[in-house]
Amino acid sequence: MRTKRCGKAARTCGRLVLLLLLTAAVLLAPAPRLTPTAMSAPSAPAPDPAVPAIGRAWPVGVRPPILRGWEPPATPYARGHRGVDLAAPPGTPVRAVAAGRVSFAGRVAGKGVVSVELTGTGDPPLRTTYEPVRASVRKGDEVAAGEVVGTVESTGAHCTAACVHWGLRRGETYMDPLSLLPPWLLHRGPSRLLPVLGVPLPS
């Protein structure tokens, strides 16, 4: 009887020792390192390093809703979305994102198109395209950043809602037009008035 009790006590002690060893191993093990990918996923694609962030204005409005983003095709003739669709009702002014020279202003397949070669962007230069747009400029015109180049037309069924398609190319290579916008413009929120010392707030 005494031998049975000792054997049972030894088994119990052995289990307790094993449990203590496992607990210590877990507590003393180094914590797994989190990589930037594991910690947070980017909310937007990284800007293209081949595109200088020289933009000074959105083509329409102030940070308009993006109906469809840049979806680069796997091959030159594959399906994809070679630009960005920005929500904009017909009649909305369309502005040059950056300074340049109008390389085309006319109609293509029944839609108004305006293209602007951007100043100082290499050879061949970067070229932005806006459609469907009723042009207020002509080929050869020099335009400043933020200058109106036309208005959004209701022609075309490219988007499910009224929009302007904004594209970017260097030669025959399509690129992400959002890369033209610097972070302060891309993520800028609504303007807010700050109080001025000694001036009462409006009631």
TrEMBL record:
Pfam family for this entry, one: Peptidase_M23
A molecular-function term among this protein's GO annotations: metalloendopeptidase activity
Signal listed as a keyword: yes
Name of the protein this chain belongs to: Peptidase M23
M23ase beta-sheet core domain sequence ranges: 80-177
Leader sequence residues: 1-29
Organism of origin: Streptomyces curacoi
Keywords recorded for this protein, A-Z: Signal
Keyword Transcription part of the UniProt annotation: no
